[in-house]
Specification:
By secondary structure, the chain is of the alpha+beta class. The protein has three domains: about 220 residues, Glutamine Phosphoribosylpyrophosphate, subunit 1, domain 1, CATH 3.60.20.10; about 210 residues, Rossmann fold (3-Layer(aba) Sandwich); about 55 residues, no CATH class. Helix content is about 45%, strand content about 15%. Helix 5 crosses helix 13, helix 5 packs across helix 14 and helix 7 runs parallel beside helix 8. The longest helix has 30 residues. The radius of gyration is 24 Å and the shape is globular.
């Protein structure tokens, strides 16, 4: 994958270089910036197709437009053939050329024809156009100057802090949403001056020649994949639907295994990833699978059994407390959020030594109803409301702070269980997937220059999902009815029995080999007096949450998203860190 930066209104080359430089980890194979008129593009490249021919920013020989692109277009060969017939010429095999030629030929609506993941910026003399894929697989963040004279976009929020004008002032509404739901809603980030570009949007930026102020207009919007959640419906014969699902998923996996380098699979031994591994084995000469776990994690044994049956070259990577603590500062800096440890960021460098890209099963739960909330939506809404009430109990929350969250929770209400289930389904697919999952996968993998691909989030399966009612997705209290039938079709019988016999486990249970030790570490590290008199105490559910927030404040309020050289987590609360002054500044 790549890192993308775009400026418009007032293109400062030094600022463009500084922001792009913070994305070098996303594209270790190449680095370039280009300024032209009142706009500029920056790009860092991870080459997966045609290293010699895919340098960016890329100029169209036909229109003169420039593009900086981050993504993979899995149907680029078909589009290339169609565009050739329309007169386009190509000098490389890379999909960037196809995206630019498609834009030249069809304009902003070209995104309707794209099947893949992408975020790109097209620079013309009088405007900048930016776009994201329909699911929000590839991220794009924006900062607009207070005087309205320029805007800048980047693939990661922390890159924008290379610009001194970008404030680290927190958005309290987004912070409350993160505490209650795990992520902000809509286009908010945790920073008041920074927004997310919405998934599926194509946005135009222009500069008024008289006032010098910039304006943005929505040029095109892709259909929202979360719209129209499943209906109640009647039970159906799922066999024909399973046939279509297998066919569509097989095509998606085959397309996403195409690269000039081997592509692996993140294999948990669960339903979603085992299906992907079985399909990938059909299309890979040497399939590499990798499992991440802790010493007490039974998942690693199940994944190894699946890998043996499929004949993949399998790697099991076991992590302990030390790995999680070492990676936590980089994780918080990468995600620009007060988040807990993850196992992914610790093993991505090791996976990257074997492959440049891996398939993962993200999106299957959201599309095919794999969570407990899909069975019991009222329980989840009640849990979220309880968290909000807990925060509010320690003091009144201003309407501006809690208003968006109140409206979100009220929108989950409906007359019937099926309607409430569908509204929760839509909320998970629209918010939880893009910000809570996909953004995390993207940032943590790209910190090591590793690309993660998500075959379940293809156009074909998205269209298929819109045709299904709840009976095709849930069988009583059993989730993912359709995918369970797919597993019986594509997995060897003994593997299918193993996979279908396992229950879905939450992260806390899968990482139980680390969690008690991690809790004990946080208890020792966080000073007792700061727990009692913390300016943000109302937002914390446990000492770990306070540790994550304090680290976040140190890195962003104190160091603008950079991990200080030689920083160790154990020194977070030492007087020389200046954390208490930073907390006071953040709470002002």
């Amino acid at each position: 994958m790549c890192g993308v930066v775009a400026m418009f209104g007032s293109a400062d080359r030094a600022a463009l270089v500084a922001i792009t430089d913070r994305l070098r980890h996303r594209g270790p194979d190449d680095f370039a910036v280009h300024v032209e008129g009142s706009g500029g593009l920056g790009h860092t490249r991870l080459s997966l197709l045609d290293f010699a021919g895919g340098a960016q920013p890329l100029r169209s020989p036909r229109s003169g437009r420039l593009i900086a692109y981050n993504g993979e277009l899995y149907n680029h060969e078909e589009l290339r053939d169609e565009l050739r017939r329309a007169g386009a010429e190509f000098a490389s095999r890379c999909d960037t050329e196809v995206v630019l030629a498609a834009y030249d030929h069809w304009g902003p609506a070209c995104v309707e024809r794209f099947d893949g993941m992408f975020a790109f910026a097209v620079l013309e003399p009088d405007r900048l156009v930016v776009a994201r894929d329909r699911f929000g697989i590839k991220p794009l963040f924006a900062y607009t100057a207070p005087d309205g004279r320029f805007v800048v976009f980047a693939s990661e929020a922390r890159a924008l802090f290379a610009l001194d004008a970008v404030s680290t002032t927190l958005d309290r509404a987004a912070l409350l949403e993160t505490v209650v739901l795990g992520h902000p809603l809509e286009d908010r980030t945790l920073f008041r001056d920074m927004k997310r570009c919405p998934p599926g949007h194509v946005i135009e930026v222009r500069r008024d020649p008289e006032s010098g102020r910039i304006s943005t207009v929505l040029l095109h919007a892709l259909p929202d994949p979360a719209a129209d959640g499943p209906c109640a419906g009647e039970d159906i014969d799922v066999s024909p639907v399973v046939d279509r699902c297998v066919e569509l998923l097989d095509v998606s996996v085959r397309q996403q295994c195409v690269a000039d380098h081997p592509v692996g699979v993140l294999l948990s031994g669960g339903l979603d990833s085992s299906i992907l591994a079985a399909l990938a084995a059909r299309h890979s000469r040497r399939l590499v699978t990798a499992t991440i776990g802790t010493e007490e994690d039974e998942e690693t044994a199940a994944a190894a059994a699946v890998a043996r049956a499929l004949g993949s070259a399998h790697r099991t990577m076991l992590l302990g407390l030390g790995d999680c603590l070492t990676g936590l500062p980089t994780l918080v800096a990468s995600l620009a959020a007060p988040t807990g440890y993850s196992l992914l960021e610790s093993v991505c460098p090791a996976i990257r030594r074997e492959v440049k890209a891996v398939l993962c099963g993200d999106g299957a739960d959201e599309l095919f109803a794999g969570y407990l909330v899909h069975v019991a939506p009222d329980r989840w809404r009640g849990f979220a409301q309880g968290r909000l009430d807990h925060v509010a109990a320690s003091g009144a929350l201003p309407a501006a702070e809690r208003g968006p969250l109140d409206r979100f929770l009220a929108g989950l209400e409906a007359a019937t269980v099926e309607e409430r289930r569908s509204r929760v389904y839509e909320a998970y697919l629209r918010n939880q997937l893009s910000v809570g999952h996909l953004e995390r996968w993207d940032h943590l993998s790209m910190a090591a220059g590793l690309e993660i691909r998500v075959p379940y989030l293809c156009n074909g399966l998205s269209r298929l999902r819109r045709e299904l009612g709840w009976p095709a997705l849930l069988d009583g209290a059993e989730q993912k009815r359709l995918l369970r039938e797919v597993a019986r079709r594509v997995l060897p019988p003994e593997v299918a029995r193993l996979v279908l016999g396992r229950r879905k486990r939450p992260f806390w249970e899968a990482s139980r080999g680390v969690m008690p030790a991690y809790h004990a570490f946080a208890e020792r590290l966080v000073p007792a007096e700061l727990r009692r008199a913390h300016p943000f105490a109302r937002y914390f559910h446990g000492v770990e949450a306070q540790l994550h927030f304090d680290l976040f404040v140190l890195l962003f309020v104190g160091h603008r998203g950079q991990v200080p050289a030689g920083f160790e987590l154990q020194s977070l609360y030492e007087e020389r860190s200046g954390l208490r002054e930073m907390l006071a500044a953040a709470s002002a």
